[in-house]
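G., the chain you wanted modeled:
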Amino acid sequence: MATNSITHSTDAPEKALGMDKDPDPEIPAKARRRQFSARYKAEVLAAYDKLARNERGAFLRREGLYTSNIAEWRHQRDRGALAALAKPSGRPTADPRDREVLALRNENQRLSKELDKAHLQPLHRGLDVGPLRTGQARRGAAS
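Predicted structure as tokens:
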């Protein structure tokens, strides 16, 4: 029995009557907020400010924007500019705790090296450095 390439669906009678199950175009599936990049906002503000007053409405309609967008973006731009100007230039000051931590690490490293050196010196002199650290010389114990 040969099969044809036409697939039969269960909703064929509905489609024949023009009752397809497409969602209602009046109600969006889920509303999503538009997000604009900083570059786009800056470009729009520059272009908007260059236009004559009577051309601005057409520009906003063409871009799908509102005057509230422009007002908010100007506020964001000015706030950002003020924040950038208020920030001190140059290298940020070091935290005193970071300096103290660095100094303590260096001192710890130096003391560890001194301790290692102190542990190795008795071996070079021929002293017994056992777990009890008696400090007796090996040669002296034999005589």
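The radius of gyration is 40 Å.

Shout if anything looks off.
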